[in-house]
Protein: DNA-binding transcriptional LysR family regulator
Organism: Streptomyces demainii
Amino acid sequence: MELRDIEIFLTLAEELHFGRTAERLHITPSRVSHAIKKQERHIGAPLFERTSRTVRLTPVGQQLRDDLLPAHVQIQRAVGQAMARARGFSGALRVGYSTPWCADLVFEAAEVFRGRYAGCTVQVREVQFDDPCGLLRRGELDLQVSEVPSVEPGIAAGPVLICEPRALMIPAGHPLARRDSVSLEDLAGVPMIGPGGNVAKTLLDIHVPTRTPMGRPIPRGPSYTFWPEVPCLVAAGLGVSIVAARAARYHNRPGIAFVPFRDGPTMDYGVLWRTAGPAPAMPVAFVDILRGLTLRRRACEAGHDAGPTGSSPTTATTPAPAPCDAAASSTAPCSV
């Protein structure tokens, strides 16, 4: 078996879906099917049981996976070490995040990166919304995963990783808290809590708009320096805040409610990095890992149909990651 065929087999053994395997390996589903059939002819027994909706390993396939996996991991590590030496990868890659769900993704990618490129570490640091690109501008970060878009000079945007529906964080006793959904026009009747500091207008227009789509003014509430102040201000009845829908799973507390918006754009999170300096080889490698993890999360969330032809699901939703650990909520750098 060729190394590429082994990789296809092990990926399919993990995903149990021809379409997701093809997407993850950047090949066609027919290439996956052809490789598996060739391996089965060579071995003389089926490796997978295929139905119109499921793919399962046969006992022969399970044993082959168990025997191949440790050696394949070692090969990947050796290749990664050689790539790191050839590309000059060494030292620490400094990565920022702005929300706990971005932190979950960054910490998972950091673990993969460390295993792939021996001798490299990843320092992870929280980014505050009142100065969202300050650490990048000052050269204290190599890249960050945070709210986009950003049009600041010297800051380049990479891929969008998370597209999240929005919700209104509102005092639990407010009349809007009893609704099933709210509209952007409802913001005309509630004070909006906003960040202090230097935030780009493009971000403010999305997260802290001053007018509704029909042009009605939105009253201003108090400002904050660190985002953890926001739920406290909302619970005190001093205003509301536009948040990602999944914030309800990370920031819920007594005195506040989360009501989904039925209109308006999604809240998007992507990669940002500095354009100054040499070609960022380490950040590019890290972004490749982030994209791979994001594709896998979306595919797993989209459904589990796995027909033998490898057809991919037609819809996908944003995944719900597990709450991040304490390290992800600290403003101090954390080496992974």
